[in-house]
Amino acid sequence: MSPIWSRILFLLLAWPLFAWAEDSAVPLRPLYTAEQQAWLAEHRQLRVGLLMQAPWALYDRRQQRLSGANVELMSRLLQGMGVEPLWVRFAEQDELDGAVRRGEVDLAPGLQQTPRGLRLWLYSAPYMRVPHLVVSEQRGISAVDLDRLGHDELVAVREPSAVFEYLYKTHNNLRLQAVSSERVGLLRLLRQEVSYAVVDEARLSLLLREPQFAALSIVGDIGLPQLLRIASRRDEPLLAEILERTLEAMPGREIELLRERWLPLKYPQIGESLAFWRGLALLLLLALLSTAAIVLHLRQQRRGLERQLLGVRQELSQREVAEQALRLSQFSIDHSTVGILWVNWDSHVRYANRAAEDMLGYAGGALVDLPLQALEPSLDMDRWLSLWKLARSSDEALPGFESECLRADGSGLPVDVSLSFLRFDRAEYLVVFLADVTERRRARAALQESEARLKGIAGNVPGLVFRLERTAVEQQVVFAYISEGSVELVGYPAAELQRADRGIRSLVHPDDQASYRRSQDAALAGDRDWQWQGRILTRAGQLRWADIKATARRLGEGRVVWDGIVWDISENKQVELALGESRARLRELSAHLESVREEEKARIAREVHDELGQVLTVLKLETAMCELVCSGQLPELDKHLQNMKRLIAQLFQLVRDVATALRPPILDAGIASAIEWQVRRFEARTQIPCMVEVPENLPKLSDAKAIGLFRILQEALTNIMRHAGAHSVQVSLRLEDGELCLCVSDDGKGFAPEQRKPGQSFGLVGMQERVLMLGGRLQIDSQPGEGTTLCARVAVAEEEVA
Fold first, then answer.
1. So what's the pLDDT on residue 607?
2. For the segment 598-625, what is each residue's pLDDT rounded down to a tens digit?
3. Top-tier CATH class for 447-568
4. Using an 8 Å Cβ cutoff, are 255 and 127 in contact?
5. Deepest in the core among 212, 290, 596, 730, taking most CB within 10 A?
6. Distance of CA 372 to the CA centre of its chain
7. Is residue 32 within 8 Å of residue 245, measured between CB atoms?
């Protein structure tokens, strides 16, 4: 065969291999920073939002499987990131945007960057450009220039769409006809109602598969491509950086293969000409015929030589195989880790491999003709003959046993001995297999010592040490070990508690069985650590408080163990309960003192208002009488009387302010009126705009609850004035689920509640204690730079609601 034809044949045969190698996916190896690697280690699963639009995302209900260009792309990227995808499907873009607002989606592929989307997403660099193509009936290979189209030619475009707006604004010469979908536009094109239709590449790749649109062709590009990006949540900038790095590491060839597989469109090329393909096919046919003729001629010449060489090759091959097998067998026997001795009926060694010689410390060939009793003194002739008869009459190897052999230097060697009967070349042998078990004995001794040490430690621990084990996922858990400390703790021996019908569960107090089962079931279901506190009953019926802590360990193949300990915390629990009761009493005392203080404030306010007010009124009348009697007689006296009237007026105002501070009279009109009055006073004093929302019909609260809510509002407004730097305040009072909720919100600088230092937030502590005294709860939501919201909820009694 000539060299040129050899090269042509080689290229034709090797082309599929080259194509396969080019299409093979290269493993992604993006370089992440330490911070990005730590983030990926914490997030082993990401929620991927998919817009279910072909060919980007499809769902096969029969096979229960997702497919599509975006599905393959995200599977490839997440595999490179080392995380698992959790697919979340959506029908519309608005549903996907709503999901990311609620924090239900981490990232989404195939989105276009828009001003509205920038408020919700962080976008990657474009990974695919999807053009909008101009489609028409078959018109050869010439491209269409939209700027040169006449007014008599209609162009079908889906409306509403960004493409319609783009063409309407940039091509004034076009006569656009709005259609509801791309399919409708192509149908009008077939009916010759329009001259052209504009369809994006993804939708066109699906429509051209239908036989009715097979005659259509692509004749141009409008120049407005869809730039597809991967969007991620705005509150996870590290995820956006990781996606960007992974996209950069992805070979561009993979994106092209993805486009060819899911968007299989052929653009007008000169190679699509029918004449071109006919000429190429004819050329390939001639090349194949010539190659076949040459190959046939060479085969006829080689057949004669092959027949002559076939017999010789087979014979040489059989010899080589036999020799190789013999060498391999001998090599395997000599280098085996098991010593092999062939022993005759007279107990003399006839063959020993190299492993046996090295194991027993003999030189090469020194073991041959040596009696077996020299190696194992307890193996006398009588015992040997009994073993010989037993092995000869048995079809299987005899069970092994441990023994101790003598080495050449007289030292002992612990071995595991196995015997097997063998007939070879009209002779009978007993094959002795020797395995060195020195390390096994050392490991066994170390294990026994370790178990004894563990039992000693567990027995001295002031509690009950246990191991809970599950051998497989579907199997039940059992107590593999319970220390003897169970006798001292609960009075039961360990063997009794290890029974399947007992366990620690049988010791739990009946009232605490539900919480015990919930904590244990949760730990077993998630293969995680187990912790529980509750009451147990000893064998003598004594009640004790116990604390169970166990650490879970996965051992592979579904096996999980929990190593833990049961502590007796009865004394600590009694102290804790006593401390809780003491706190409750202190809170009751504080509530009583607060009530007494408020009553004292109200009494003082009444006395100040009534008694001091009467005195000031009399003083004002006396001053007026003096002014009437002495008016105009002494100018100095008139001046002093005017000063006294002014001072009396100021004293009147001071009395009203003191009485109002002690107990505002507006509280008698109801908590809603009091809240609105206090907020308006705050607004007038600080010039900060305030919005108040209070219901018209509120239940009449007890005096203690009304005063408590009013004081909380006063403290909250004081904190806003001193620390918040707010520009506006919102105060609302509403009835929700039998609770009265007071909310105070500002748009100030906010703070981090967890970073509060002791001694710097007595106002918040006072509000918290005041709400607890009222039997309610206080919630504070704040972040630096995002303002603060304070909500106090107090239960409303049924008689108050009525």
1. 58
2. 555 655 655 555 566 666 676 777 677 7
3. alpha beta
4. yes
5. 730
6. 66
7. yes
